[in-house]
Amino acid sequence: MLAKKLGISRTIVHRVWQHHDVQPHRVERFKLSNDPRFEEKVRDVVGLYLNPPDRGLVLWVDQKSQIQALDRTAPILPLRPGLPERQTQDYQRYGTTTLFAAFNILNGKVIGTCQPRHRSREFVRFLNHLEKQLPADQEVHLIMDNYCTHKSAEVQRWIKPKKRNRFHFHFTSTSSSWLNQVERFFALITGRMIRRGTFHSTEELEKAIYHWLASWNGDPTPFVWKACADVILDKVRRCKELSKTGD
């Protein structure tokens, strides 16, 4: 289209774009946080990533809700030379489940439970499960997003007793899911297991999730965070400046 508009060959357009590393076919999206404590929260969370406490645990906590137990209306056609795995577009639904997970940033291990819903009471139930799984003599730093369930009155009552003084809650800034390492884990379990499976009930789905978690924890892979807070904040600043000027 550009070549036709300018009256030149497509080869020239291609060479110019290649020389200047211009990729007009690509579009990326971004979202800027308007959290007034954005910088403070970024430094807090990234500080835990890069300099975790010596005698403490740092866990990313979140839930993957509405995981559907789907059964395809026809058998999945397996991978073949030159052809990807193929699934029917239509399916039957057999209910949903929610995976609550705590991702250990140091060793990559995950503590997870499945529950039918993702209200405050289910989150508190998961916190109780988490408390039983963790060493009683360690400080625990839980990093979470700003979902209302994480800040509910029930959760505040849970953390209030003195016996839970070792638990420390850290919240990311709003619109900052890119800070969340457990989201990367959710993407892995979704792409490698959930979307590739067929399930005839939520019980079958949950059994498959627990099996996948056990397999992951047998050989866990932590995600290495490299960007310091200053680098992140500088990129956000430049992005804001560009969004104002339109350049």
How is this structure best described in words?
α5 (153-159) links the parallel β4 and β5. It is globular and about 75 Å long. A five-stranded mixed beta sheet has the order 3-2-1-4-5, sandwiched between helices. α3 runs antiparallel to α8 and α4 runs parallel beside α5 (153-159). Helices cover 39% and strands 19% of the residues. The protein has two domains: 1-30, no CATH class; 36-79 and 86-245, Nucleotidyltransferase, domain 5 (2-Layer Sandwich), CATH 3.30.420. The mean pLDDT is 90. By secondary structure, it is α/β, with parallel strands linked by helices.
Number of helices: 8
Rg over CA atoms, rounded to whole Å, is 23 Å
For the secondary structure, the number of strands is 5
In the CATH hierarchy, the architecture of the largest domain is 2-Layer Sandwich
Q: State the order of secondary-structure elements, H for helix, E for strand.
A: HHHEEEHEHEHHH
Q: What proportion of the residues form beta strands (DSSP E)? A: 15-25%
Structural class based on helices, strands and sheet pairing: alpha/beta
Oligomeric composition of the shown chains? single chain
Helix content: 25-40%
Q: Low-confidence segments, ≥5 residues, pLDDT <50?
A: none
What sort of overall outline do the alpha carbons produce when their principal axes are compared? Answer: globular
The overall number of domains is 2
Please name the fourth-level CATH homologous superfamily of the largest domain: Ribonuclease H-like superfamily/Ribonuclease H
